[in-house]
Design goal:
two-stranded antiparallel sheet, single chain, 226 residues, 9 helices, 8 strands, six-stranded mixed sheet, Peptide Methionine Sulfoxide Reductase, Chain A, alpha+beta
């Protein structure tokens, strides 16, 4: 199946008028406020050398685009997590019945950017953690909000931050982000990798992903890299 056919739905969803696009951008900007810093993190004495984090929050195009623009992040791969190897491909996960979520695997240097800082960006601008099994126009369990923790340290920090944000009532709705152990991660098809960089004027990217990058620049100027 061609890339054109696979992304037709997103193309149609993104083909909005200039007036609607402006409204979407303004709404996104108004609804994304700076969150408090996590009160807990993983000690750098424990996390030595390159580390990885696997996060899911809707379409992986935008998630990848956000995290690859962070200083200290050396690699971001779009892929699938939560299901089996047999169903780890785009056509299958679209059914919403494979157990997979569209996710990104982030490789980072904890000496430059910490796990808690990644989570702050994740909850602040990368996606909306209050949307259950959807993000914006995309619906289904494959678009769920989920943190796939690789160890007890990641689980502890993520769980503490979710509790912190809920107690602070940073949103009118509760956070629905799942916290589940990472069993496996499967890289997505090559044409999904660095999708925003390769397709900067794709309608879906313009409407739903570029506003995230604008928010990243505004909220985290010291962490943003071109």
């Amino acid at each position: 199946m061609s890339l054109q056919n696979l992304t037709l739905k997103r193309f149609l969803l993104g083909s909005l008028s200039i007036v609607l696009l402006t409204a979407v951008v303004l709404t996104y900007s108004a609804s994304h406020t700076t969150l408090p810093a996590p009160a807990t993190d993983i000690s750098t004495s424990t996390a030595k050398g390159k580390q990885t984090a696997v996060l899911a929050g809707g379409c992986f195009w935008g998630m990848e685009g956000v995290f690859e623009h962070l200083k200290g992040v050396s690699d971001v791969v779009s892929g699938y997590s939560g299901g089996s190897a047999a169903t780890a491909h785009y056509e299958a996960i679209g059914s919403g019945e494979t157990g997979h979520a569209e996710a990104v695997r982030i490789t980072y240097d904890p000496e430059q950017i910490s796990y808690d800082q990644l989570l702050k960006v994740y909850f602040s601008v990368a996606h909306d953690p209050t949307q259950l099994n959807r993000q914006g126009p995309d619906s289904g369990t494959q678009y769920r909000s989920a943190i796939f923790f690789a160890n007890d340290g990641q689980k502890r920090v993520a769980q503490a931050y979710i509790e912190q944000l809920n107690q602070a009532q940073t949103s009118r709705k509760p956070i629905v982000t799942q916290l589940v152990p990472l069993n496996s991660f499967y890289a997505a098809e090559e044409y999904h990798q660095q999708f925003i960089a390769r397709n900067p004027v794709h309608p879906y990217v313009v409407v739903h992903d570029l506003p995230k990058l604008n928010q990243l620049r505004k909220q985290f100027p010291g962490m943003y890299k071109k």
